[in-house]
Amino acid sequence: MAKAVANKIAPTLVERRPVLAGQELSVTGVTLAVLPTAQRISLRAPDASVAALSKALGVTLPRKPKTSTAKAGRTALWLGPDEWLVIDEAGKDPLADCAELTVLHSAVGISHRNVAISVIGPAAAATINSGCPQDLSLDAFPVGAASRTILGKVEIVLLRTATDAFRVECWRSFSDYVFTFLSEAAGDAAA
Amino acid sequence: MLLIRCPYCEEERPELEFRNAGEAHIARSADMAATSDDDFEKFFFIRSNPKGIIYERWRHMHGCARFFNAVRDTVSDRFLLTYKAGEPKPAKLPGAAE
């Protein structure tokens, strides 16, 4: 007990208030929810560094377009030929895992930059498709598929987590727009 | 909506994800200081603006974010071919014989 007290960090003056925290919306066929905060990095690296980075992160960085890989609460999304978004929901900062590496790479912590919204239900694809022009059928966008794309007027990163579930990652300042857009769309998709 | 094939994503994607980035295959002089004003004007300002086949740079802005080159018909707005940045101008276009 004494040790725990000794390790206690001094109370911070700044309280973290995640935007839209805990907001939810449930209509027939779709449920929207703002997901809890997660650790994220934007990772860029040449081919030669991919193996070492995969080992350090504990998740194999995908090499095929529009794919993602996941292991132990950590997901790596292919965004471009040398660009990945790594999301950790288990509370371990992937930035720290890259810090010791000497291979050429650029890892930027963007945990606070993004907000994730889950869209779940039989009408999830229809909801997202009201603002996203990509083909979201299971043939073209199977479970695990991930892509940077657009929703309405803003850029999002879309990940299909299950046949009827998506994770929408958007920038923090756009999150109000995205959540409102999806809420309106959910009503239409359910109708 | 147009579907444009991104050579990096290896599939056709909706045009909203793309941005045009001007004419392709315009090489910058290696020795810009020695370039005459007339040559610089041609390099910097003068574009071919053809009616028909044009070679353009496009960027998959809201996708993989990569620049690539595309061959487009300015009359029909049809994309004949897309290829990665840095690759030479294709010698033969699909359907060119027609």
UniProtKB/TrEMBL annotation, chain A:
Its EC number is 1.5.3.1. GO terms for molecular function: sarcosine oxidase activity. The keyword Ribosomal protein does not apply. Gene3D superfamilies: Heterotetrameric sarcosine oxidase, Probable tRNA modification gtpase trme, domain 1. Pfam families: SoxG. InterPro entries: SoxG, SoxG_het, TrmE/GcvT-like. Signal peptide: none annotated. Keywords: Oxidoreductase. The keyword Oxidoreductase applies. NCBIfam families: soxG. This is Sarcosine oxidase gamma subunit. It comes from Mesorhizobium escarrei.
From TrEMBL, chain B:
Keywords: Oxidoreductase. The keyword Oxidoreductase applies. It is an enzyme of class 1 (oxidoreductase). Its EC number is 1.5.3.1. It comes from the Bacteria. It holds the Pfam family SoxD. This is Sarcosine oxidase subunit delta. It comes from Mesorhizobium escarrei. GO terms for molecular function: sarcosine oxidase activity. The lineage of its organism: Bacteria, Pseudomonadati, Pseudomonadota, Alphaproteobacteria, Hyphomicrobiales. Signal peptide: none annotated. InterPro entries: SoxD (IPR006279), SoxD_sf (IPR038561).
